[in-house]
Amino acid sequence: MTVCRGVRGAITVQQDTRDEVLSATRQLLALMIRRNGIDAADVASAIFTVTRDIESEFPALAARQLGWLEVPLLCGYEVSVEGSLPRCIRVLIHWNTDLPQADINHVYVRDAVRLRPDLNVLPPVDFEELERWISEHLCEDQSTAKAVPASQDPASPGSDVKGASGA
Ligand SMILES: O=C(O)C(=O)C[C@]1(C(=O)O)C=C[C@@H](O)C=C1
User: Fold this and answer.
1) What is the three-class DSSP state of 78?
2) Around Cβ 162, how many Cβ atoms within 10 Å?
3) Is residue 50 pLDDT above 50, yes or no?
4) How far, in Å, from the CA of 115 to the mean position of ligand 1?
5) Using an 8 Å Cβ cutoff, are 136 and 125 in contact?
6) Contact predicate 123/131, CB 8 Å
7) 115 CB under 6 A from ligand 1?
8) Predicted pLDDT at 166
9) CATH of 3-140, one of 3.30.1330.40, 3.40.50.2000, 3.40.640.10, 1.10.260.40
10) Tell me: the pLDDT tens digits for 7-28?
11) In a 10 Å sphere around its CB, with 0-12 CB exposed, 13-18 middle and 19+ buried, how is residue 56 labelled?
């Protein structure tokens, strides 16, 4: 029976740069997709959180770069608990699958392994091969896409761009 199950993942970045956030999130998603055999068509939605020290880019863009154009995505901040792991990107994927909960593979990489050592069963990763896989799955339109600044978003109240109505 197909049910919706959660697949968790987390990864850290060394610096809060757009490139690092996107590249780390692509790697995290690629590992989760490959470990579980996730097809975008079966993904109900995905929620990303970042720690407060990350503000250079929305990690959701990495999912669109990998072709998740129809998957509802949302980003938010993680709770800032004192002493918690810095520069961390977390994701929760809601996946429609026949698999039992126990067969879901959650993915924690880099310094995020310490968040859930009990779930840290990731086999060794060939990162060169992983990057080749990511390049093969990049969705060209989205790979260079940027978040739209409010001043250029026709839907934004303060926009200096005219909407379709010309208003
Ligand atoms: O799994 C993680 O990413 C954690 O940091 C662990 C944990 C938890 O205590 O279960 C804590 C905070 C997150 O919002 C989610 C889960």
Assistant:
1) coil
2) 9
3) yes
4) 7
5) no
6) no
7) yes
8) 36
9) 3.30.1330.40
10) 999 999 999 999 999 999 999 9
11) middle
- Annotated domain spans of the chain: 3-140
> Which one of 5, 26, 64, 87 is the catalytic residue?
64
CA distances from 133 to 12, 27, 50, 86, 145 (A): 21, 10, 25, 28, 20
Task: Please state the rounded mean pLDDT for residues 156-165.
Answer: 50
Give, using CA atoms, the residue closest to atom 4 of ligand 1: 115
User: Would the CB of 119 count as within 6 Å of ligand 1?
Assistant: no
114 lines ligand 1 (CB under 6 A): no
| Polymer length of the chain | 167
Whether ipTM > 0.85 holds is yes
Annotation marks residue 88 as catalytic: no
Q: Residue 22 carries which side chain, given as an amino acid letter?
A: L
Residues 52, 80: Cα–Cα separation, whole Å: 7
Please compute the mean of the pLDDT values over residues 111-123 and round it to a whole number: 91
